[in-house]
Design goal:
By secondary structure, the protein is α/β, with parallel strands linked by helices. It has helices at about 20-35, 45-55, 60-70, 80-95, 120-125, 145-150, 185-195, 205-220, 225-240, 245-255, 265-280, 285-290, 295-325, 345-360, 385-390, 410-420, 445-455; strands at about 1-5, 10, 15-20, 75, 100-105, 130-135, 155-160, 175-180, 330, 335-340, 360-365, 370-375, 395-400, 405-410, 430-435, 435-440, 465-470, 475-480, 485-490, 500, 515-525, 525-535. It has an 8-stranded mixed β-sheet. The protein has a 6-stranded mixed β-sheet with strand order 9-10-11-12-14-13, with helices on both faces. Strands 5-4-6-7-8 form a 5-stranded parallel β-sheet, sandwiched between helices.
Length: about 550
Amino acid sequence: MITGKIRRMLWNIEDTIRIETKESLIDLIDQEFKPTTPAGQPNINGLIKLMQDELGLDKAQLTAFIKTFKNQKVLIYGDYDADGVISSFILKRLLKIIGSKAFVFLPHRERDGYGINQKTLSRLEKAVEFDGLISVDNGVSALDVLEDVKKRGKKVGVIDHHLKKDGYQKPQIDLMIHSTLTCASGLVFGLACLMYTEKLISQKDWEELLQLAAVGILADQMSLRGFNYMTVKTAFKSIKESQIINKGVRELVKQAGYRRVINEYAVNFIIAPRINATGRMGEAGLAYQLLGTKAQENLSRLGAEIEKINKQRQVITKEFLMTAEEKMLKLNDFIVFYDPLIPEGILGLLASSLSQKHTKPALVIGGQDKLKGSGRSVGQFDLTSFLRSLGGVFESLGGHKKACGFTVSNKQALDALIGRLKNKRVLVDPAYKIKYLVSPKALDEQVPFLVEDYGPFGNDRQKPYFLLDAIKVQAVQELGQTGKHFKLKIEGCQGLDFVVFGVETKVEWGQVKRLVVASSLNHFNGRIYPQFRIIDVL
């Protein structure tokens, strides 16, 4: 069954388990979320084992990487998003420790485009003298360019997590560290784990890189299973015990005015967007520079500049979303929005917002000559594979199940794409499954703490949602003056608050019988208050 009201979310509420007591609910949550990986509790040995068993990063491969680039002049060719910035930063730190002098290049989104290319590389070769080249967070789709560098006598390595092209053949380069199961930050952090066990880096340095890798993993929306889950879990444990170590990340949080606990929310909505904003709106090097800054005067200056850029990004995105609601095409099963003036850096943000609001896959395209676009899916629909099945509409197309980037040659090609989409019908599965149909008396203040212990949650590790049926709303308190935020009291849930933010449609709360809720912990004035957030009204 697919349903939804105040959030326009897609819910699967078939096969729910009816739960009458708190003890039954706790048992089921424990069964679903208790870690079953060989790593057990977060620790370096568990991470090493997962790194080897899951990602295929064995000690010999990583040791060979260190030996190949030790005491070399190395050019790191990174990427302009948060994962690219962070992985490049970690890699440079590690290369410095083994005696190498590294130069980091982060491409400009519009001037250089995504990934390593011959034109940009030729410019770099004239400007920088280097013995070795490492492409990080890119490269697996540009192996011909890298093989040419190898033929000119340079040492060449690739650290990437993107999908290999059809017909892939092992390249003639020195080394490749590749896995689609984590992001570039996770792969480079695997190298840091080996160096830590070899006593090449201190525990504090390792913990700083651990925390940064967790930001990269969450920012790139990696599956929170196995190695990724344990890395993020260990990172949050580290932050709780010794705060954020990297001063640049700490400054981002400070500039944002965020004073609550550092968890997946803080990374996804506070830290990562600000790092990404620099690459979306200009130079990703600004965020990279902040990560390596120590002096407070420079931290304050860079942090304030990035905060300003992020606010500009928010304003521009909001303006184009308003335009999109007026001009976008609502096809049978797709949203398509084209505007030649859309900045390339916000195409993905617009596509994401439109797909979530309208619960349809969304394509957003900008540009006047060669058109560039970004797509976002909903539910479990594999958008990239579907678009590839349309044939020769695209000049280029890449991505994964839930997101893609593409180019089309001109407006006529875009019209042809729209024509094909008009006649296509697709099945969009529900994005969220509700397993627990819960009696109000089964919820108490212990449940939010238990769920929090099994965090973090994210992609492929959905936080548990609870369906409350046949409820009675005892009291409603409006929060703020917008008419969109409320706090409810539910009969049978003594002492518990149910809060909802950003209600999109008017709700007669006295008539509501079914709620979808999720547990949360409200940190306020040094105290922690368990509560439940209302996610939807069914």
